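Example record

The entry below shows one chain as it appears in the dataset: sequence first, then structure tokens.
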Amino acid sequence: MYLLGRFKFSTPITYLLLSFLFLFFSALSAYNITDVLSKYPDFSTFNDYLTKTRICNQINEHRILTVLAVNNAAMSSLDGKSVDVINKVIRIHVFLDYLTLNKFKSLPTSLTTQVTTLLESPDQQRYLNITNGDSVSIVSAAGSAEVEVVRDISPDEIYMTSVVQVSDVIMPSSLSISPSPSPSSPSPSPSPSPSPLSSPSPSPSPSSAPSPSPPPSSSSGPYDITNVLNDNSDFNLFSTYLTQTQVANQINERKTMTIFAVNNGAMASLVDKPMEIKKKVLSLHVLMDYYTVQSFHNLPSAQSIRINTLFQVTDNPSGQLGFVNVTNGNSISVVAAAGSDQATVVRDVSNNKTNYISVVQISNLLLPSELTASSSNPGKSRSATPVKAPSSSIAAAPKLGDAPAQSPTAAAPAPHSSARASTNSLLTIIFLSALSLTSVMLI
């Protein structure tokens, strides 16, 4: 205090220093879902279950999440349920996307949007289906009563975590008929999630499949999409563009993703496009969820499912540009939600169960005309040598109920720990810069 008292600071400089310090210490405080909900007494029961099941820890460690909060009155439907059922139901109310009330209402009215929850489940229980109509309704993909989106509670664009109230508990019918022993005091300590390394391979390649690349063993090192694709020379051009556009870096920093890879011949229509167009198109080929050929077959038959992509997350494009529609039929077809030539899922290329990142080959590029309209020289050959989906690979994938894959979502670590580390490093630099500025003025 004596040292500071010897110097007089101008008011603007003082405000600047205080602003730096406030920014530094405010941003370093981590997201805390229980603190957020503690401001709303109507959600105290829901908040209590988040804490007792320790699901709050997963929420705090992740980014790009939406929490569907239920008020105390509606939570009474969980009274008497077992710890296991409560744990599963609460996980269903957290999904891997950032949606606010306005974003819910901007979803297309003609399609069902499917999102992936934190529930670890081998079947459709892990998914929610969202429909936008006169109101926004949500049901479990495994079947449940319909609930409605009520209001925003706490959207947080810094941590990309949204808390939205829904009208009732989403209770899949398969869980509602489960035995319901009444725990004397619900202090659910969730069963430890099975190690991803011991989980069965979600999509074993059948011997009849045409030279599929077997999923590599999980590695303790960081994930590197270019190294994965280097083992498959058919994807050299796709891998090169991932590196040049830096989309590869975004993939390597995240978890729980699916990359739609396209072979060299089918990449011809992208060769003469500007780098910015290449980046957007490649980002559209990265799904913000984990799928294999088998799990695509587990989707509802003959129903188009809209899936979020990296393009939507990073660029927030207008309309439907950031989404793809997947339909499960005799084959798995994929189109850009904004309109494109139809592609077909061909085979599993790679399946990393540590980071839950899979690479799945599709027959041709998803190239929305809206993205390439500004390009001065549109691609001339969209299908130079597009591959056809081998029937044996698709047919061999088991249908719903045949040894389905185990959902990785709940066991997956925080998807953006590296991003948080980078943010904290930047804030540390800002803080040190502020201290340096103070030292200069003192001198």
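Notes for this example: Residues 32-176 form a domain with the FAS1 domain fold (CATH 2.30.180.10). The longest strand covers residues 147-156.
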